[in-house]
Amino acid sequence: MVEFRVPPRYCPLPPSTPHPAQETLEKQALGWLAAQHLFTQPGVRERAADTKSHILIAQITPDAPIDRTQPGVDWAYLMFLFDDLRTDLGPTATNTADLMNWLYDWVEVLSRPDSPPPATAGRDPLMLAFAALSRRVRACTTQELWRRWVDTHRLFCWGALWESAQRTTRTATSFDAFLSARAYLAGSPLPLLAGEIAHDLRVPEAERNHPLVRAAVEAAWMMVGLDDDIYSLPKEGLEAAEAGRDPDAEPSAVPIIKRELRCDTATAVNQLVDYRDRIMLLLIRLRERANQCRLSGDTLAYLDLALCEVRVDAIDWPPLAPRYTAPVGKSEEPIHLIWSATTDRPPSDGTALPFPAISWWWDHIH
């Protein structure tokens, strides 16, 4: 049994609220995955259920209609299967070229869901399920948001390929370079987009690209990814060791900080908590600043969804997901996570982090 204490993290955001139809969303999602022939192998249904993806998505939009929330819930369950079956296990998990070919077909299927899939993709039930989901998302939202949904998956591909290439080439990357890829590797933009679709928001394009809005949203995405790096640390370490990789050479936040600072794991975890706490403080300040920028109601609602994604996906949902105590390939739960309470006491240092990939965010709090 590996025991790991998740340190106290700064989060002044209020606890999230369950969606009133949460159990229905879960039941319908697992039923849909079964109908896509994704549960034919032993244990796959149980692993999918252990993600508790209905909480991950629906609790971001507890007052959204169930019919507009369901596609996002189904997407989250499907993406975790993709993560387990394509990036953690199988030939695409160890060969960047194979992963690139699979991701190319994947994006083609998402962007042209009515067309016959590529020859190899047509035999993959996971690929066919993504095509079916893309059609459903297209039917329930605007053409612009559906296209954004497809394009956001392209950005996820960039993150997944970066991670795979780091492992394949055994490159010792910098923490700044890691931050450039982290939000997309975590898939953080997609739950926010699911919330946008569920609430039928119409964010003006000029406001979506407003520097302050971009900084706040990217900070929220990064928060989700960095918190994942904390509570996933024991799981990812065991999976790396089982795959024959050195856990300290993984392209993840804590191993990279250990290498850069030449410190032990506990020191690196505490340093990462300091980084994420300062980003959280920045996010709160950016949201307050947004009220002074004459943004539309939908844009402000979009920013509120980003904050809610942080609360749900980084704080409220992970302790409920057995996924993080059961590494892929392990039949038993070898990890015991001890979750420290969050704190509403802000960090004493509110200055910009010294990483060019994200330091520009702090330019927009005044």
UniProtKB/TrEMBL annotation:
Pfam families: Terpene_syn_C_2. This is Terpene synthase family protein.
